[in-house]
């Protein structure tokens, strides 16, 4: 998770450090204290939300990436690379996670607009990733496309857990591109 110190926030906002500490203590700015010395830290997303709420400019260095990002979660690298080729041809940047835990880390570090998700993975399966992601407030806007070789009832279960769309393997490049374009418009 990318965080900022109180001092960094003071510099971004051109205010005194004590002002930032008051914002944190009053709850206007969401943050947390590090164990031990108790230094404050604020998640970048929480800081941006604070700036937007108070009609303050967002520093260029903290603005989201210009090109929409797609996180591809699949333990089979040939399949992940195939999805990546389709996404890149459609003009989107991509990241690949080969497991559920890695996907969770990437979701917290980056802000993808779409995640493609395989259901059958060792360790943390796609259902667990789906459930975890839908419980995260910061991921409410994330569109999830499940791409799996499992049967229709498995795909239906994925939709019940919060998938926005499902495709069966092998998937149609055209269908996948249409979903990417559709979800990027939202």
Automatic annotation (TrEMBL):
Annotated positions of the 4-aspartylphosphate modification: 118
Response regulatory domain ranges (all copies): 69-184
Signal peptide: none
Transmembrane segments: none
Alphabetized PROSITE patterns for the sequence: RESPONSE_REGULATORY
GO biological process: one example: phosphorelay signal transduction system
InterPro entries, per database record: Bact_response_regulator, CheY-like_superfamily, DNA-bd_dom_put_sf, HTH_17, Sig_transdc_resp-reg_receiver
SMART domains reported for this sequence: REC
Record Pfam families: HTH_17, Response_reg
Record key words, sorted: Phosphoprotein
Keyword Ribosomal protein: no
Cited PANTHER family: RESPONSE REGULATORY DOMAIN-CONTAINING PROTEIN (PTHR44591:SF3), STRESS RESPONSE REGULATOR PROTEIN 1 (PTHR44591)
Protein name: Response regulator
Upper lineage: Bacteria, Pseudomonadati, Pseudomonadota, Gammaproteobacteria, Alteromonadales
